[in-house]
Amino acid sequence: MTGTTRRQFVVGAAALAAGGVFMPAMLRAQGTVIRWGEMLATTHPQVQMVDRIAASAKEKSGGRIDIQSFPNGQLGSGKDMMDSVVSGALTFTTDGAAALGALLPQLSVIEAPYLWRDAAHMAKVGASPQFAAMNDDLVSKRGLRMLAVTYYGQRHLTTGSKEVKSAADMIGFKLRVPPVDTFRAMAEAWGAKATPINFNELYLALSQGAVDGQENPLPTIASAKLQEVQKFLVLTGHIITPRLIIANESALKAIDPADRTILDEAIAEGVAWQDAELARQEGELIGTLKQAGMTVIEPDLESFRKPVLEQVPPKFEEKWGKGTWDALAAL
């Protein structure tokens, strides 16, 4: 965040709120300022997507729409930024469905392991009645709206020193997972010791041996340079991950309708670019990570899949809603 510390940002936002002035409304006459917080590095396509959306919206609106991007966890953890979107200090953030499940529990199903067959199957969720109902609940209960479902990639394991060829090799393994209950349950189904760590602390935790390994999509592994502190790439493909563009509903309502149309179109174009770019990178990155010194392992996939499907969907059926898993799997 150029010229602004996280503390200054939070204090300034709080001062505006205390004075009864909501930032988007205050700025409506001058145009629309959108503050968009991101956890990922500037080299990741998700952050580049935000930059493309910003450029397109600014150009097509004649400068009225000003999207300010704060990447690389400058404004804190994913939870910090989600809380800021709820309060209105931030307008947008992008995060996983499982993380958003802390605010609306049933949403975590969208990021459940082994639910989606492929990226095209996952993309259908945005047009499903289940997703529309969850979005309505999110607006009414939390004042947030999901504007788009994006493709984040297929998640794989990496390890620092241990070859992992089946789930049996995960027993006692300290696996970093996001601070999300479904991810912890997945790791525990493999016999691993689930260790929640925020993403912006992950590289250091791996380099110091605080955890034995982690799991993420290939573009995230590469953009965060995790190959520098991990030796083995284990192609488990356990989750096809969506990411959600999440907005403060009051801020959206403050946007002029014509500018909202421009913004929606810019988001749709940016999402399409990012999804294609991530798919392209995934096709190349196994070779790139090999060249960087990682050993690539093709494990016994069924040994990972079977215990998770036996344990996780039944465990979370009440949270997700009876029949929700089956309905989404059948899309």
Short structural description:
The protein is an alpha/beta fold.
Structural description of this entry:
- The chain is of the alpha/beta class and 331 residues long.
- 46% of the residues lie in helices and 20% in strands.
- The protein contains 14 helices and 9 strands.
- The protein has helices spanning 6-18, 23-26, 45-60, 78-87, 97-100, 119-123, 129-142, 181-189, 202-207, 218-223, 249-253, 257-291, 301-320, 324-329; strands spanning 32-37, 65-70, 92-96, 144-159, 174-177, 193-196, 213-217, 232-248, 295-297.
- The strands form 2 sheets. Strands 1, 2, 3, 4, 7, 8 and 9 form a 7-stranded mixed β-sheet that branches. A two-stranded parallel sheet has the order 5-6.
- It is globular and about 60 Å long.
- The protein starts with 5 loop residues before the first helix and ends with a helix.
